[in-house]
Write a structure and sequence with these properties.
This protein is an alpha/beta fold and 226 residues long. Helices cover 37% and strands 22% of the residues.
Length: 226
Amino acid sequence: MKTLTSFLMFCCCLLAMTASQAQERITLADGSVLNVFMVAPEIESDEAYPLVILMGGGPGNASISQDTSRWLGSGFARRGWMVAVPISPTNRSFRGAASNALIVELILELQKRENIAEGKVLLAGVSNGGMSALEIARRNPQNYLGVAAVPAISNENTENDALRDFPVYLRIGGDDQLGWADRFEETVASLSSAGVDLNADVIYGAPHMFRMEWESLASWLEEIQD
């Protein structure tokens, strides 16, 4: 009897995991399909949930996107966000105009759902995903609540003027294996000189991908939602 009970509890846990996190095929306006990991909010609400588009690092492939949905997407979900982690169809992240446009189309489709709020969306990303988030925001910043880039870099030649007064949360690991910590000051200067509303810091001792400082990120999220 105990074995049966344990098995049933295990099955219930699997069902709960499937319900809260699942891969979906989203058909865009042009008929193309984008695969997306959706992580449902863990907070029940009678109102529609705010949406965050969260982009993984590297090539943004299925494996990386799934990992990102679990370790970072779940943190947003625990705080009441509907999380969408798109899988790059080109295996080259979401950098560049054509890939940026896919995210815009994805948002339009997701906001047709009754449980997802209309209006401004949060963009977030890890490494290449953080760079993608900044690129997308630069095109139409009025459509977004802000960017959480954990991490990302920017240089003196990057045109960030469109992001004046736009909220950006930036974190870079102090022991970043790719040397991004050495470019922290350059990145801050690039964004600050454009008038970005910047919340930036180095997480000392942390590698390229790091444990999120949810206390500070949650505080920033509350500020941009007010």
